[in-house]
Fold this protein.
Amino acid sequence: MIITRFAPSPTGQLHLGHAFSAWKAHGFARDHGGRFLLRIEDIDPGRCREAYVDGIVEDLRWLGLAWDGPVRRQSGHLPDYAAALDRLKRAGLVYPCFCTRKSIEMEIAASGHAPHGPDGPPYPGTCRRLPAAERQARLPVEPHAWRLDMAAAAARAGPLAWHDAAAGAVAATPELFGDVVLARKDAPASYHLAVVHDDALQGVTDVVRGEDLFAATHVHRLLQALLGLPTPRYHHHPLIRDAAGRRLAKRDRAATLAELRAGGADPRRILAAFDRTSASGAAMPI
Ligand code: GLU
């Protein structure tokens, strides 16, 4: 049974780019007699808003993209992610990081030759090198994130690959990201950990999502190996663009579904335009 999902983070209103992704995932499931799930990725209490969750449900209903079964809210499952992190702690593959954003920036600037990763310069590894006694002393009293010891994790997992519908077999190169954060100071899990956990738990066979998340899949593949989870097939689709060729972003108010709905747009015409865009690779006429 094919299972796909749409997994938005409720940090803003959905725009046409999100709708395109949801339509793709929905269509893939429907074409294969499978299931299409809706998951709300609301692990970051600082950025997620309940009003945006309501908006997601309203937008998908308006578009006619019905999901199967209950909606999973990540905020209701934080102990699951903590348990996954505990496994990595026991395996000695994560370490506490006491750095602040500012201290990391300063260290990278001072080093003068930071290599660039897919999400910007990788973490310089400061807290990985802390003496064990200092780490133990600071742990109970200082706020900290948890980072993956990437070199150790990649060595433990060995060579890995994953399959992308467009790119074919892809060798995983998570090392490019450096020591990614798996639990934050203010949020008990990161996107990478929660997404991998939930895709496995929900039996997702095919992850259909935008190509902006292609690189993150290297990290996801590694976490699957470390946690003994299955690897879904991936379908990273091109992002839809406006007439000027720019990708749509949350700043483009005109392209939010709420705005389109309020303006009397016809959802069937939007889906028909997706169909044409998808077939031809042309820009979305908005
Ligand atoms: N929650 C992620 C986002 O809104 C997407 C997760 C995914 O599709 O893997 O960017």
Remarks:
- The chain has two domains: 1-70+238-286, 76-232.
- The beta strands are 3-6, 35-40, 72-73, 94-97, 145-148, 161-164, 168-171, 181-183, 206-210, 233-237.
- The mean pLDDT is 93.
